[in-house]
Amino acid sequence: MQTQSRNALDAKLVHNLMDSVTDVLGIMAGTSVTLQDVKPVKSFKFKGDISSVIGISGEHGEGIFALSFSEMLTKLMVSRLLGISKEDVQREDMIDGVGELINMISGRTKVALSQEDNTLYNLSLPSVVLGEGSELETGDAETSYLLLSFDIEGELFHLQVNFQTY
Amino acid sequence: MPYILSVDDSRLIRKIMTGPIQALGYEILEASDGLECLEQLKAHAKEVELVLLDCNMPNLDGIETLKAIKADSALSHIPVMIVTTEGEREKMIGAIKAGASQYLTKPFTEDDLLTKMMECLPQESLNFG
Question: Which of residues 73-112 of A touch B (CB under 8 A)?
Answer without folding.
Answer: 78, 81-83, 92-93, 96-97, 99-100, 103-104, 106-108, 110-111
